[in-house]
Amino acid sequence: MNAPGAQRPPAAPAFAPYGAGGGIVVTAGVAALDPTTLRPLHPGFEEQAAWVLDRLDAVLDASGAGRRGLLRVECFLAERRWFGAWNACFARHFGAEAPARTTLVCELPVAGLLIEVQATAALAAAPAPDVPPTRRRDRSS
Q: What SUPFAM superfamilies is this protein classified in (predicted)?
């Protein structure tokens, strides 16, 4: 129970972790927040970034796209000083198979939240029988 006059944390919004249509999956924002309290799960940037990337993998797997279908990751950093650490976390997580990425620096909606990501992915389509399966970045041909 809250003390008289104490502010309650805002209620967690109800939204789907992803939406899909036309062979494309778009994720909701993925942030290391406790859904009940809307407080960060971890105080440090690297911990939040690792949690966010692991959760992004789980959402993509649940959507059916998986990491193989990942086309683009959009990242929102609370401060520019986290950019180098974000590059290192991203490289560790994706390695040579990194998708396209955009990183923005902006004020995030919850105090202590340092990073949030969202992504766009393609649902897998069966390759043509005479084409060996590969990870193609150019989806236009």
A: YjgF-like
